[in-house]
Amino acid sequence: MNKTLFIISILTTSLLNAATVTLAPTKDNTLYESATGHLSNGAGQNFFVGKTRQSSGVSLRRAVIAFDIA
After folding, report:
1. CA dist., res. 52 & res. 38, Å (int)
2. Which of 2, 8, 47, 68 has the highest Cβ tally under 10 A?
């Protein structure tokens, strides 16, 4: 049984094809953690994601990206 499944999996994987698609974002934005939730950088040239070690309280940054796939 296991040998049969192994042979079937080897034969069917050669039939599969992979394609690579490159998508360019239409919009991007960096959202900064704040008490009000109103801090962002949609017009800036840079894009930030992750945690920082700032003492000002703005330590978490999230990224939002929009793609036009239509």
Report:
1. 18
2. 47
Name the one residue in this structure whose structure tokens are 């800036």.
44
Task: Give the residue extent of every domain in the chain.
Answer: 25-70
CA atoms within 13 A on the CB side of 46: 3
Residue 39 and residue 70 in contact, taking contact as beta carbons nearer than 8 Å: no
Longest alpha-carbon distance in the chain: 62
pTM: predicted TM-score of the whole model, two decimal places: 0.57
Contact 58, 34 (CB under 8 A): yes
Q: Pick the closest to residue 66 from 30, 28, 40, 31 (CA basis).
A: 28
